[in-house]
């Protein structure tokens, strides 16, 4: 490509596009620079600085390509850099620790080395203002600080610049550090510049220039700059040089690149940016690749991937060839057998470009195609036919017909439908008594053309009966378990395996037995009278909840009898009341569940209740006047159940009837004596009399008072004829009648 009569406007980047019948290809871009030089502005400049400070004179603006070579002059004399004068990378003139002699007219001569033009700038008049108070020593200060830089890895070199001012300037020194480590190489221009040759990623880091005034107490002046290394892009994934694809397919053209910073990817088709094509079937993926959906013949062409960053640009490309192909079977339909109620899938995979249209038929009836859809019949994306659910009447021959612009073909397959295997008499949850037989049914309906296989599992473990096993699987699938015991408890699953489908049902078998006897039965006296506290450990319930407990007792070695017949199942202890003091007791407990009454526990040790005073008075109290000064009193002992111990005797008390006087007492010390003659009484006087029994624990309750008179005058009262004779004959009544 030739550019005649090159002009300034012709500068820029150019790309070459190569075309042939396969497409177009973009070449790497090239830059065209046009050398030229403009003019400085005409007006002079003036600048004033204080004595001892640094003077920084900027290059006056001028346009030039390439950048001009610059030389500074003062009043016709070329300025040579020294420890006090520096010319920066940006062509600034810096005069350190200025004095009055630095005043004058400064100018620049700029030369364009390409076209030979040179221009002289207007004057910059520098004035130095005297400052009487300026000290001999001035602390270091950074005048021109280094700037952050980015440089392409492998380039020849890069330079960082740092100019500081201080007084006296002869004692000023500048040092450089990278990531805290002092640098000794690459320093020049009195330490103001640091040049890094052939920079790599290892040179990346934070650079610090430090200006120190030797022999002074001033703090060093510091400035920082960060150097980053740019790595040009490189490909990590590229497409093949040629991609062959068929119409309607989807392709992904690979392109991945790395670099620092991360490169930007841009796709072109036949030298036109993908973004300008605005084709909705073209999509750039997050990985960088290009996806093209539903290929068309017009997608054929050259696809280019450009990767670029500040370090450069690279490209890779491929030729995409989209073709038409006549239909061909990848997978032909095959005879298929399914079970009634299931899903049938008849495969039919066909290749071709454009993608062949698939039609399924049975006989002359179209079941499914791109435009026809009947309930239960669905055309799959793969080209297969799905029937959901399948019925018995769906059995028959099915034909897959495929066609595109290049041709057509067809193939058929037979569909066989079996009656579904189903459990109609499933096993049911059962509770059996230990030692009896358990029968778990498993009846099923099935297609007569197939056979069934029964598998029984207990808690998901397969049962494998042996010849002499007490567990048998019958021909109809029933499971018989004889002599059941607790090890048979579990979940039983009947699984039926057949070509007509599989089915399974689960039931729970519980084996129950009599409850075990309660353990650790203990008896102890209660704080309540006439009571004992029993406690026991809840027994094994025989896998059937305990309904209640029965408590039996034996009193004074008598036969066992039920004392409490319905103790709640939640109880593990009870207070047994209604017992008789001074008697011995043994206890035993048994549990009752659905099966029946379990064995009794071990009986407790014999326990005696402590004596208590008799709880009832003597009965049938009879009093009769015997003489004018005595009364005979007779009685019967209290009921035996109220003795509460061994009777030791009786207390008889008496007093005048109806008067509040105190009682007088008589002690009958033998429990065998049940009468007493009360003497020394008042003639013809009524008395009230009471009797109480006592034992080792104390005195019992007194009887209700009975009243009786002594006789009048010298009367004697006899009970019968024999008493009268005894009295008249001997006068020794006291021998026959106990005195108290």
From TrEMBL:
Q: What's a single GO BP term from this record?
A: brain development
Q: Under what name is this protein listed?
A: Uncharacterized protein
| Residue span, Ig-like domain | 140-228, 233-323, 327-416, 421-510
- Location in or out of the cell: Membrane
> Where is each Fibronectin type-III domain found?
517-612, 617-713
- Answer yes or no on keyword Chloroplast: no
An example Gene Ontology CC term for this record: plasma membrane
What Pfam family is a match for this entry? I-set
Keyword Transcription in record: no
Q: How does it sit in the membrane?
A: Single-pass type I membrane protein
Instruction: Give the molecular function GO annotations.
Output: cell-cell adhesion mediator activity
Residues annotated as transmembrane: none
Coarse class of the protein's main subcellular location: membrane
* Family of the protein in this entry: Belongs to the sidekick family.
Starting at the broadest rank, the lineage of the source organism is: Eukaryota, Metazoa, Chordata, Craniata, Vertebrata
Query: Which keywords label this protein?
Result: Cell adhesion, Disulfide bond, Glycoprotein, Immunoglobulin domain, Membrane, Repeat, Signal, Transmembrane, Transmembrane helix
Q: Which SMART domains match?
A: FN3, IG, IGc2
């Amino acid at each position: 490509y030739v550019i005649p009569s090159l002009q300034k406007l012709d500068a820029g980047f150019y790309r070459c596009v190569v075309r042939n019948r396969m497409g177009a290809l973009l070449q790497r871009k090239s830059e065209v620079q046009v050398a030229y030089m403009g003019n400085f502005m005409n007006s002079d400049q003036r600048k004033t600085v204080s004595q001892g400070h640094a003077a920084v004179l900027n290059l006056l603006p001028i346009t030039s390509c390439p950048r001009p070579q610059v030389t500074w002059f003062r009043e016709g004399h070329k300025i040579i850099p020294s420890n006090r004068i520096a010319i920066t990378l940006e062509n600034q003139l810096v005069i350190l620790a200025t004095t009055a002699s630095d005043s004058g007219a400064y100018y620049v001569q700029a030369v364009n080395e390409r076209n030979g033009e040179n221009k002289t700038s207007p004057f910059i008049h520098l004035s130095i203002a005297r400052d009487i108070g300026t000290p001999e020593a001035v602390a270091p200060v950074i005048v021109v600080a280094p700037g952050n830089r980015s440089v392409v890895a492998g380039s020849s070199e890069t330079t960082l610049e740092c100019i500081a001012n201080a007084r006296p300037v002869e004692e000023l020194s500048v040092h450089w550090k990278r990531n805290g480590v002092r640098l000794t190489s690459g320093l020049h221009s009195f330490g103001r510049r640091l040049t890094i040759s052939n920079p790599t990623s290892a040179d990346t880091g934070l650079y610090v220039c430090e200006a120190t005034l030797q022999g002074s107490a001033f703090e060093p002046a510091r400035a920082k700059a960060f150097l980053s290394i740019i790595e040009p892009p490189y490909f990590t994934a590229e497409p093949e040089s040629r991609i062959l694809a068929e119409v309607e397919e989807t392709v992904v053209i690979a392109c991945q690149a790395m670099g620092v910073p991360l490169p930007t990817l841009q796709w072109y088709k036949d030298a036109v940016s993908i973004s300008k094509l605005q084709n909705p079937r073209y999509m750039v993926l997050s990985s960088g690749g290009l996806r093209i959906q539903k290929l068309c013949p017009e997608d054929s062409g050259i696809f280019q991937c450009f990767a670029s960053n500040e370090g450069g640009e690279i490209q890779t490309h491929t030729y995409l060839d989209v073709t038409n192909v006549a239909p061909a079977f990848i997978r032909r339909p095959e005879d298929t057998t399914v079970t009634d109620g299931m899903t049938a899938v008849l495969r039919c995979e066909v290749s071709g470009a454009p993608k062949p249209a698939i039609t399924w038929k049975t006989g002359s009836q179209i079941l499914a195609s791109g435009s026809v859809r009947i309930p239960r019949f669905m055309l799959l994306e793969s080209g297969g036919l799905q029937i959901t659910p399948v019925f018995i009447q769906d059995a028959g021959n099915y034909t897959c017909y495929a066609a595109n612009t290049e041709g057509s073909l067809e193939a058929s397959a037979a569909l066989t439908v079996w009656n579904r295997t189903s459990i109609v008499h499933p096993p049911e949850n059962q509770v059996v008594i230990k030692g009896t037989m358990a029968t778990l049914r498993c009846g099923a309906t099935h297609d007569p053309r197939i056979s069934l296989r029964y598998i029984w599992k207990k808690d998901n473990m397969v049962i494998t009966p042996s010849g002499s096993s007490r567990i048998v699987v019958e021909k109809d699938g029933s499971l018989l378990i004889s002599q059941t015991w607790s090890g048979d408890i579990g979940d039983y699953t009947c699984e039926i395996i057949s070509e007509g489908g599989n089915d399974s049902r689960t039931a729970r078998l519980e084996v129950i037995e009599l409850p075990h006897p309660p353990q650790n039965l203990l008896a102890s006296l209660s704080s309540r009278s006439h009571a004992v506290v029993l406690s026991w450990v809840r027994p094994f319930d025989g896998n059937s909840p305990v309904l209640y407990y029965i408590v039996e007792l034996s009193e004074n070695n008598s036969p066992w009898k039920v004392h409490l017949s319905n103790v709640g199942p939640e109880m593990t202890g009870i207070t047994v009341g209604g017992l008789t003091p001074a008697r011995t007791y043994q206890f035993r407990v048994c549990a009752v569940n659905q099966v029946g009454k379990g064995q009794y526990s071990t009986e407790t040790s014999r326990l005696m209740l402590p004596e208590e005073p008799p709880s009832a008075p003597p009965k049938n109290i009879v009093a009769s006047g015997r003489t004018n000064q005595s009364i005979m009193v007779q009685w019967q002992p209290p009921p035996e159940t109220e003795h509460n111990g061994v009777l030791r005797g009786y207390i008889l008390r008496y007093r005048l009837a109806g008067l509040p006087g105190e009682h007088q007492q008589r002690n009958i010390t033998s429990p065998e004596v049940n009468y007493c003659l009360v003497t020394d009484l008042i003639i013809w006087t009524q008395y009230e009399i009471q009797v109480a029994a006592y034992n080792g624990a104390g005195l019992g309750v007194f009887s209700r008072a009975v009243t009786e008179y002594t006789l009048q005058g010298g009367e004697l009262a006899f009970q019968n004829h024999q008493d009268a004779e005894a009295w008249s004959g001997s006068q020794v009544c006291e021998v026959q009648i106990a005195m108290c």
